[in-house]
């Protein structure tokens, strides 16, 4: 019966987590549920009798949480075996090992349970609370970084609605929110745990440590909210603006192999928006994967295609710069001077391959007002096993991937953090010759602070994200992606523009407010004045992921000191010069 209740508790915890983050029923999630989502998990771990049992319970939590929050990965065409199946297996396995670490504080304090009830170990509850919160924060940190990074399904996503609290991300990154929420969960769960173990009233010494932890947790929330109130209500005056036409064609790139299916509808939506416009925009943005033929060679192709309205002549006729998602053939060792320019776009390859293997980059391409292909940014953070395949140069991996999903190679990561310089002579408050430097993270790159941080330090004044999310077919997937990305605007106090092929196409200001948005899964296009603010280097921009690194240091330090002290305490030498326990030593000592 006990094990049944524990299993039920961890599954219930996963269900609460799924409703706390963005889902089909609560599109933008629930911060309130996020404050209690981990409570059943904490209580189940506290009642575990072994590290193995705790590992299995946490593995179940990770499995159900991942499937319930990211079920839409099953729509990722032939890649679903990796995007959903392999990731579910991965989080199940890692969840087991993580569960053993979560159980450690309960195990080491259980040895002094009698002293704790007697009020002699008031810090036991503090140890359990803060080690749980620290480990959870480190888990979300590792989940969100590296080759296998996947920041979806994290507790921080549930906090999106509470803008006063989320403002702290310009100091701590999103991990500050994750720490606060996991800390609150631990405080609530620890209170229930102490009540269930028959601890004395709150006025007794045995609860003094718990009371102190609870007060400190409340102070963290109060100070975080006060700082958020200051940042959220702070007046920010744009130094300039760029009028931007965002095109959302609702085009699922997985369902077609032809190259004109997305281009022609995008042209039509763009022309209709221009016909309605009172003034000509400074830039036109199309989403990821609109173009299917690789540049530079495709420049000639798109000069005559689609047949109904060739792309390059259309761009030239508008007299407006375009940013469009599409592939670029690159070299694995191309020096900077071989990158594309106007001459290369019109007559040459621009980028030459020095190897026998052709390499292609998922890119954002920049066309100037004359229709010339000027530059590109290649996606750096690729989707593992879908866009990039480890050991793809090995025959065994090529054979395996060909048998599983029908292809044996992937994209090549981008080589440069390229910015596009958009002229804004017509922008409000702009003087003649003004421009805006924008970074263009592609697809889920806007979920990764390090990508945007590198673009920011290259001089980006705003982030223009190009995304292909139509394949997910669900509103929750679109909004989850937006929610994760929106924290980049607050972290770097800059404007985030997202142009997607299904949603959530939007403009977000440095405080996290949605200034403009377009309906999900609706073919549309709109012109929005994007405010550009003075660049200021935030604490987080300067120091990056310092908080989880600091918590990792404290976590290691605690266990190091603990085991050193335990070794000194439990080892004394008797007359036969062999280790004996404290109890034995007390009995044998005259």
Overall 3D geometry?
elongated
The CATH architecture of the largest domain would be 4-Layer Sandwich
Largest sheet: 6 strands, mixed
Number of domains: 3
CATH homologous superfamily of the largest domain? Carbon-nitrogen hydrolase
Low-confidence stretches: 332-355, 573-590
The side-by-side strand order for the widest beta sheet comes to 5-4-3-2-1-12
CATH class of the largest domain: Alpha Beta
Helix content: 40-55%
SS summary, helix count: 21
Can you give the mean pLDDT? 87
Which strand-content bin applies to the residues? Answer: 5-15%
Query: What's the Cα radius of gyration?
Result: 27 Å
**Distance, first to last CA:** 48 Å
What name is given to the CATH topology of the largest domain? Nitrilase/N-carbamoyl-D-aminoacid amidohydrolase
Strand runs, count: 14
Structural class: alpha/beta
Describe the model.
There is one protein chain. The chain folds into three domains: 2-234; 240-379 and 414-542, Nitrilase/N-carbamoyl-D-aminoacid amidohydrolase (4-Layer Sandwich); 545-557 and 565-588, no CATH class. The longest helix has 31 residues, at 80-110. The chain has 590 residues and is of the alpha/beta class. It has helices spanning 2-20, 31-34, 39-46, 51-69, 80-110, 113-117, 124-143, 163-166, 169-172, 174-196, 208-233, 263-276, 298-301, 311-318, 342-347, 395-405, 449-457, 475-492, 539-543, 546-570, 582-588; strands spanning 240-248, 283-285, 322-330, 359-367, 373-378, 419-423, 435-439, 462-467, 495-500, 506-508, 514-517, 524-532, 572-573, 579-580. The relative contact order is 0.11. The model is unreliable at 332-355 and 573-590 (pLDDT under 50).
